[in-house]
Amino acid sequence: MSDKKITETYPPQQQEYISLLSDILTDRYHTSAPKAFVHTYGCQQNVADSEKLKGMLLQMGCVLTESKEEADIIIFNTCAVREHAEDRVFGNVGALKVLKRQKPSLLIALCGCMMEQEHIAEKIYKSFPYVGLVFGTHVIHRFPELLFHAVTTGKRRLERGYDDGKLYEGIPLHRDGSFKGWLPVMYGCDNFCTYCIVPYVRGRERSRSAEYILSEARNMVASGYKEITLLGQNVNSYGKGLTEGIRFPQLLKSVADIEGDFWLSFMTSHPKDASKELIDVMAENPKISTHLHLPFQSGSNQILQRMNRHYTVEKYLEIVDYAKSRIPDLALTSDVIVGFPNETEEDFQQTLDLIAKVEFTSLFTFIYSPRVGTPAAAMEDPYSHEVKAERMGRLLKLQEEISARRTASMVGKRYRVLVEEQARDGILNARTHGGVVVEVSGGTDLIGTFQTAEITEARNFILRGKLLVV
To answer: Which end of the chain lies in a sparser environment, N or C, as judged by fewer CB atoms within 10 Å?
Structure first.
């Protein structure tokens, strides 16, 4: 499949629906600026999708609000990766019943990965009759059309399960940040890890043309963005199906070569596709973050095989050792699943051994949560939640000790940091090139700027420092 077959410009008919909705929503809500509330659950890819929804809403004449109570349109963009995220969605949707009763014209829409699961979408449709629009990840580009029909007919709309396999460029976009931004380079996943629902709700891998990616990146730099994060479920697979012959290391270098003072990062890398070429590009370009997120999931080859991860512990350690040799100040983070079906104590101990050997900067840890429709959900699992929770406790204790040592080694050193947000009065959160949080004193006028910080104190996962005039 070539990029010429899968890449389409934003359909003109959707722009026509946007134009029609501008007047229709004004009449429906008796205001020239209806208020829209968009809440995102889950990963950065969902955040990027919500930025498209917001862009389309703004073109319809809506304004964005942070208050559900003020909103005329409420959209929940959902995540299906963890059971906890699904439970939160159900609880929060249930709470909207009161708002709908108070404001009958309120339109409630649910979209995203949860809605691509048939049993979830049908439960939403049957259990929450006040939800007027339900649509999946594959039809986000048709949001104006779906909203138009929901508003003009007064009938509920459920649209999911159809993937035309295409990428649509030029969809209106409203970025949440002014100096940090997400830039999707590909969508979907072909890996089919046995525990993961993503390939079923996001579809197969499709890479955006480098031409569009580079154009968008240049516009972001010209607009003052200080950090750009390239997104993909597995960015290392970028380039499959494209006629351009460019793979992810070349794309990463091309974006980094754009003139301007900015940092460049990416996520997520799959170990089976992580190459020495990628590490070399990182090591040779100062704009590219020294942070590598490389999920290992388990330290047991037996469990990795049952997970269908297509690499061994030895292969993982080989790429980690090479990365550390090429990038001495590398900050390495990872994902770990505790309690995968039939994970024995020996399997778990091998995970602890890997963590101790690698000494990660930090870990994202999860107790295994079965996803309906995945192979792992049908696997026998003799171990109780209590056993898994006890193991998780041991893992967290080990990682806290490692993190404490790593942050302690940074005390007294100076780092260039990007000031990101106000933590509390007079205290700002900044972040190093390797992604470690540093608390510093300063005014909000520093947010969105690069500064130099000297580390004065270390906690387990964050640092404290003072800003220097250099």
So the answer is: C
